[in-house]
Fold this sequence. Notes:
The protein is mainly α and 84 residues long. The chain has helices at residues 4-18, 20-25, 30-44, 50-80.
Amino acid sequence: MTTIYSIYDQIAEIIARAEPEKVLEMRASEGMQQRFNALVEKSKSEDISSQERDELNHFVMIERLLRLAKIRAEQDIKFISGQL
């Protein structure tokens, strides 16, 4: 049975293998980061709509996915350079 976590893991693997160095450089734009921060603050005060909570949840899922991809990319770079 495939869980959502194994799906994220597979997608992270695909991203990491594309170009590991580029994956490590991925960052959210300033506007995206500001929006994320605003949603986090709204969620703390519980003054957040269901649509905004859904948006925040998507931000969190994408961040986790990219974190997994970066971990895989680091492992690939170490393997290629003979450090593993």
